[in-house]
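INTERNAL AUDIT FORM
Audit reference: QA-55
Scope: verify that the stored structure record matches its stored sequence.
Auditor: D.O.
Record contents follow.
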Amino acid sequence: MSAQPAGKRAGRVMLVLAWGAGLFLATHFFGNLEDKQRNPNSNPQSVHANGYVEVRLASSRQGHYFASGQINGEDVEFLLDTGATDVAVPAELARQLGLQAGAAVTVRTANGQTTGHRTRLKQLKLGDIVLHDVTALIAPGMTGEEVLLGMSALKKLEFTQRDGTLLLRQSTLQ
């Protein structure tokens, strides 16, 4: 058997590298596209007007409203849930955020009853909307990283939904 010329071998190596780079870039592109479809509000924009600040959120493909925000200055991802009484933070995320577990409470969820703990959020931020001293719940049975943005926060805002857009408005007049 004769050895392949060096140029032919180098060409094959370059072809394999090109295919590898192409697959990496395609995976990266489609992964980012999928994330954008799941959370189209990764950087919510705010509008300031006379007496209020407003944030518009687009719904995900499944009709949910996800949005990136902050709790006590730390980045989190919210899932807006008007059926949740309080803001609900998964236990592991609450630990990472340094939230203090308060009184134990029985919580009724779609998965049954469990025991959670009351806590308070010094600051909750979504776009330029900032809420202070928000009642929350540390939920031990919650999996994932999303914080349910329940009515303990939403009741402090005016909100309307129309055509796949949720409008949140906070009065700046005090």
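Auditor finding: record pair retrieved intact. The mean pLDDT is 85.
Action required: none
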